[in-house]
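Could you join me in thinking about how sequence relates to backbone shape in a protein? Would you write everything just below, so we can both look at the same thing?
***
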Amino acid sequence: MPAHQYAGFWKRLLAAIFDTFLVTVVGGPISIILGVIVGSSIGSIVGLLGKDSFFPALLSTAFFFIGGIFLILRWLYFAIMESSSHQATFGKKLAGIKVTDMDGRKISFWRATLRHFAKILSAMVYYLGYLMIGFTEKKAGAARHDSWLPCDQ
């Protein structure tokens, strides 16, 4: 296994903050616009069929689509960027981090997709999957999502 310089907790945190900001600023308005268009269209049909519940159906469907579209945009951002020739999101690039497989090669889109959803699991219990980074020898690979899917950062 080649020697890699693993990214520590603070570099990863910087990258995560930058990426979250970027996805929110860019993906948020896109999600709102598309969610309102699609959600309003479907919600108005559901509301008309329900006769007396037009506005609740319209609003709840629009909010559902706004959230769903945002989650899809977030997933695509991470999966496409980490599996691209850059091997990093814009935040990771800013922090000097590259995502590779255990042999230092670029990961596939599907591995990046699994990695993205595994990161959600790492965050589910008080972010303990991320906090473990600071207490291990290798730093990276210590985050639960890196252990589950052999990737280096």
